[in-house]
Design the sequence.
């Protein structure tokens, strides 16, 4: 049930953007056990000045190769699962398409299950 948003600067090829989406999805399956078919992503390229980030926040040197990953998912994962997810996303994106781990910025947004509708105007996970 995660909804993944990936934001990058213009200049990345469609193949690179697809590889980023693939790497994030594989990490979600591996690290927190989402079903492989549960894939919903928005992949966006931004013009200069439309993706703003501090190049040195917390002592991490970021470049124009920065990748923002925001994942909205249901609550219930442990701190260890979240840490593992962050690590696996960074590893996967480093392997392909070659994103520097320093340039992988991940944010999780947790919501309760009844806040999802996957179609037909129905809250499929509401009790």
Sequence:
């Amino acid at each position: 049930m995660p909804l993944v948003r990936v934001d990058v600067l213009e200049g990345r090829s469609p193949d690179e953007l697809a590889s980023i989406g693939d790497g994030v999805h594989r990490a979600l399956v591996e690290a927190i056990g989402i079903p492989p078919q549960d894939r919903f992503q928005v992949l966006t390229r931004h013009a200069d000045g439309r993706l703003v980030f501090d190049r040195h926040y917390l002592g991490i040197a970021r470049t124009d190769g920065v990748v923002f990953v925001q994942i909205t998912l249901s609550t219930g994962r442990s701190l260890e699962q979240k840490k593992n997810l962050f690590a696996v996303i960074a590893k996967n994106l480093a392997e392909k398409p070659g994103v520097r781990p320093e340039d992988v910025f991940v944010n999780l947004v947790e919501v309760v299950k009844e806040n999802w509708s996957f179609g037909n105007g129905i809250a499929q996970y509401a009790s």
